């Protein structure tokens, strides 16, 4: 493996660990930090007129993520 690949893997691992720590902090008693589920629910409800912009954006994000990780 080259250094660039290791750096990218390390960056994704760091992001995953930070997300887990934030989720843990959000689930503590009396925390004001929203959980990941709360944030996703807020995004899913966002609409501009009759267009569900939040749902389209979330779908686009999952499509992009899948394309970059599973399209080899």
Describe this structure in words.
By secondary structure, the chain is mainly α. The longest helix has 24 residues, at 3-26. Helices cover 72% and strands 0% of the residues. The model has no long low-confidence stretch (mean pLDDT 91).
Which key phrases capture this entry?
72 residues; mainly alpha; 72% helix; 0% strand
Reconstruct the topology from this structure.
Blueprint: H1 3-26, H2 36-45, H3 53-70
Helix pairs in contact: 2-3
Low-confidence segments: none
Supply Rg. 16 Å
Give me the number of helical elements: 3
Task: Give the biggest beta sheet.
Answer: none
- Strand % is under 5%
Distance between the termini: 17 Å
Q: Please estimate the helix content.
A: over 70%
Decide which structural class fits the backbone: mainly alpha
Overall mean confidence score, pLDDT: 91
Quick summary:
Helices cover 72% and strands 0% of the residues. By secondary structure, it is mainly alpha-helical. It starts with a helix and ends with a helix.
